Amino acid sequence: MTAVRTEGLVRRFGDRVALRGLDLRVPAGGIYVLIGRNGAGKTTTLNVLLGLLRPDAGAVSVLGAEPWTRAARVRARVGYLPESSALGYPWMTARQALAFHATYHPAWDQGYEHSLVEALEVPVEVRLDQLSKGQARGVQLVMALAHRPPLLLLDEPTDGLDPVLRDRALEILADFAGSGGATLLLSTHLVHEAERLADHVGILGRGELVVQHSRAELRERLRSYRARVPEGWPEPAELGGRVWARSRSTAEIEWRVWGDSDHVVAELSAAGATVREVSDLSLEEAARTILSAQGGRNGDG
Amino acid sequence: MGTAETPRARSGDAVDRRPRVLRVLRSQLALVGLGRRRELLAVSVFMGVVVAWMLTAARAPGPDVRSALGTAVVLGYLWPVSVWEGEPPSRRLYHRLLPVGERLHNLLRIGAGGTWIVASLAAGTLIGMGAAGLLGHASAGFAPAAALEAVGGVLVMYGLGSVAAVATEHPGRWIVGVPLVYVLLVALLDAHGVQPLAGWLEAPLRSLNRAVETPLRTAGASAGGSSFPDALLLWLAIAGAALALAASFRPEPGRG
């Protein structure tokens, strides 16, 4: 079952194509991390999912509703954390802003709000325009979470938080997802932070998904292989299309290859290479590998 | 914060609960009333001073009271800039993100702003009349119908100003610029002897003027017999239709 689904989603801004036929599948009940470089289309994707932008082509479904035509319904079901610090009115104190926000969400859970305020150390008597970036982020996280939405859309959620609050925020998000019934779609370019949360990963490059898999599958399918090779050794042709990265020292080559590792090792060995190490990639290494290679090609993921 | 104290996400009907319209209206009234309290106070004080000055200087109601109430119409026209300050369409993200239909939400904000400006102007007028009375310059007061029509005049101008505030990035420029360009155009056509065209262009202005000012001229007296209510109703309808159209506008969020 999918919480968020897009099919062939296209969105243009004048001549610039921000999303090129995006097919997003966010499974219900998990944490989906959408990774991409700046300008890859992450924020545009979230704006379409919230009904703030109308797609030029394609279909969109958020918890079963089409967001452009059912925007109010979708927004009632979603907790959203925007990339910019733009929630609330600057003259309000944090307490007033939360009370104002609560009036729009009949499902608001005051007890949960209080525990979030405490955990994120939100200074409730301070005006929003006098909060630090991290404190404002804390207020926004409370706004996104306290009505206990079944879907959270988070755009760079830890941006501006200090290391302690960043850990706490990630823990809160993991707890909320783990408590059941919630789906998180988290967009970030700070991949190392998302490593411990991700169940599913989508890597977005230039408005299209390059890779979309479960974290386990990505870990299993994209691996690093280090091998010694004889001088003048020709790389097996079958490997070519699946190699995302390649680096060479004097007598050793490291490949980052997409595919079943037993097959890759067998192919390399059959071609005369001595495979010395097969290792998993961290999410950040995998994302960097794919995004770096994406300039020249798209993968089969 | 451990898992034990983290509640589950809502499910079932609880997920779809949205705020009632009256609740949203109350929130918008509070938002405008608290957020713009200084401006509202300034409007009341300014209006009070103008009314008191007009009454004490003129020693009688009539054209001078009309001028004082003309001030109210101008303030009503400018007020939307304050109601939507800091929220041009491209930066109206928070307002738009709240789970209420966008047109309804815009109209409720406009309604809240209209309520406050009328209340503020009325308070100022009453204070001014009271102050003049204390100084021995009692005014003739308002016939209820004339007062209602004066409110209508303010609301027409507030509505027209709100169209610019809801739908344009720089409402101040439009609110000042459109009448300025209009007046200049009419004057230019007039000066070059293109009378029919100038007259045609002037027609809506005369109608608007009749709608918002005629009741003011009749302040203190019954408005019966004049043709202005039709003009007022017409302009209320025009402003309402323009507002409904402008409130349906769904801007693109700013990028960057």
Structure, described:
The complex is a heterodimer of chains A (301) and B (256). Chain A is α/β, with parallel strands linked by helices. Chain A is built from ten helices and 14 strands. Chain A has a six-stranded mixed β-sheet, sandwiched between helices. In chain A, strands 1, 2, 3 and 5 form a four-stranded antiparallel β-sheet that branches. In chain A, strand 9 (200-205) and strand 10 form a beta hairpin. Chain B has 256 residues and is mainly α. Chain B contains nine helices and no strands. Residues 218-227 of chain B have low confidence and may be disordered. Classes of the chains: A alpha/beta (301), B mainly alpha (256). The A-B interface holds A 13, 43, 47, 50, 52-54, 63, 71-73, 75-77, 80, 82, 84, 86-92, 100-101, 103-107, 109, 111-112, 115-116, 119, 147-150, 168, 171-172, 175-176, 178-182 and B 1-3, 5-11, 14-19, 23-24, 26-27, 30-31, 34-35, 86, 91, 93-94, 96-102, 250, 252-253, 255.
In short:
The complex is a heterodimer of chains A (301) and B (256). With 301 residues, chain A is of the alpha/beta class.
Which structural class fits the helix and strand makeup of chain B?
mainly alpha
**How is the largest sheet of chain A built, in terms of strand order?**
6-7-8-4-9-10
**Which runs of chain B of at least 5 residues are low in confidence (pLDDT < 50)?**
218-227
Strand content of chain A: 25-35%
The average pLDDT score of chain A comes to: 90
Helicity range of the residues of chain B?
A: over 70%
One letter per element, helices H and strands E, the order of chain B comes to HHHHHHHHH
Distance between the termini of chain A: 20 Å
Major beta-sheet overview of chain A: 6 strands, mixed
